[in-house]
Design goal:
Belongs to the phosphofructokinase type A (PFKA) family. ATP-dependent PFK group I subfamily. Prokaryotic clade 'B1' sub-subfamily. This is ATP-dependent 6-phosphofructokinase. Keywords: Allosteric enzyme, ATP-binding, Cytoplasm, Glycolysis, Kinase, Magnesium, Metal-binding, Nucleotide-binding, Transferase. Pathway: Carbohydrate degradation; glycolysis; D-glyceraldehyde 3-phosphate and glycerone phosphate from D-glucose: step 3/4. This protein is an alpha/beta fold and 320 residues long. It has eleven helices and eleven strands. The strands form two sheets. The chain has a seven-stranded mixed β-sheet, with helices on both faces. Strands 7-8-6-9 form a four-stranded parallel β-sheet, with helices on both faces. A hairpin with a 2-residue loop joins strand 10 and strand 11. The protein is elongated and about 70 Å long. The protein binds 6-O-phosphono-beta-D-fructofuranose (F6P). 6-O-phosphono-beta-D-fructofuranose (F6P) binds next to loops.
């Protein structure tokens, strides 16, 4: 392997820049050339490929977003697009690619690997929904951003003695919602993985809490459940308590990464280059039980992960 490429794909996540920096600098330190591929697989197909030197990644570790840009690319899901991508890699002398993204991005990496381009995936998503790893790049920053925003909503909610429904991101995964539920001391948490809640129970809970003197009632609603605005209208009508919905949205994807996201993304970026140099391909990097490890992409995609029952129970125990 003489030249490697790096790209970010799917939704961006804080810490992706730290990972790009680590890939570029580790590769250069190991005597390789590096090419940055802009806008994910779409940029590969458009040949938006630039040489990268160590100085090109200076002053980015603290920045949110991704300096390479990112995209979700439908064309690359098809065999024809994948073949074209592999040919473009060969034309540019790219022997291997580090793909920073979520599960969807690994399918493309898998295809490239079959076509002779070595690939290593890094888990980049705020959702924490990649089964082979306890850590994903961006989750720590996103959950801290959401937590701080919820604290602010809680202040005004208490002053006005309102109920607040706060919708957090996470596609179909409730990790941000669970963590904020515990970290913000929410009264109720609605998660797609535990979607058996009964709205009447929430209404009863709000009324009971109000009788016990609680001036606020915070409901964290995961994006996968959604409908926060209509839920707020129904709850207000049933309880007679003013209820507002706040959808935090894309603010959770931006901002300067936390120390944890900078640190783990840096180690993972270096690790990806080093295992590629050992001859590995079609692998995804994960973090489990205090170790950085890697898995075959197919095996990783077969794994499942869910919300821990005990942790979910604790969120209820602490919300009385
Ligand atoms: O996967 C990250 C994420 O922010 C999800 O939480 C969310 O559902 C999705 O991306 C939104 O995607 P888009 O940027 O395409 O609107």
């Amino acid at each position: 392997i003489k030249t490697i490429g790096v790209l970010t794909s799917g939704g961006d996540a804080p810490g992706m820049n730290a990972a790009i920096r680590a890939v570029v600098r580790t590769a250069i330190a190991r005597g390789l050339k590096v090419k940055g591929i802009k806008k994910g697989y779409q940029g590969l197909l458009n040949e938006e490929i630039v040489d990268m030197e160590a100085k090109d990644v200076s002053d980015i570790i603290q920045r949110g977003g991704t300096i390479l840009g990112t995209a979700r690319c439908l064309e690359f899901k098809e065999a024809e697009g994948q073949k074209k991508g592999a040919e473009i890699c060969k034309k540019h002398g790219i022997d291997g690619i580090v793909v920073i993204g979520g599960d969807g991005s690994y399918r493309g990496a898998q295809a490239l690997s079959r076509l002779g381009i070595n690939t290593i995936g890094l888990p980049g998503t705020i959702d924490l929904d990649i089964a082979c790893t306890e850590y994903t790049i961006g989750f720590d920053t996103a959950v801290n951003t959401a937590m701080q925003a919820i604290d602010k909503v809680k202040d005004t909610s208490s002053s006005h003695e309102r109920c607040s429904i706060i919708e957090v991101m996470g596609r179909n995964a409730g990790y941000i919602a669970l963590w904020c539920g515990i970290a913000n001391g929410a009264e109720d948490i609605l998660l797609p993985e535990k979607y058996d809640y009964n709205e009447q129970n929430i209404i009863n809970n709000i009324i009971t809490n109000r009788k016990h003197g609680k001036t606020h009632h915070i409901i964290i609603n995961a994006e996968g459940i959604g409908h926060s605005t209509s839920m707020a209208r129904r709850i207000e009508a049933a309880t007679g308590i003013e209820t507002r919905a706040t959808i935090l949205g894309y603010m959770q994807r931006g901002g300067s990464p936390t120390a944890k996201d900078r640190y783990y993304a840096s180690i993972m970026g270096a690790y990806a280059v080093d295992i590629m140099l050992e001859g590995k391909t079609n692998r995804v990097v994960g973090y489990q039980h205090g170790e950085f490890i890697d898995f075959d992409i197919e095996d990783a995609l077969q794994m499942e992960k869910g919300i821990n029952d005990y942790q979910f129970e604790v969120s209820h125990l602490l919300s009385i």
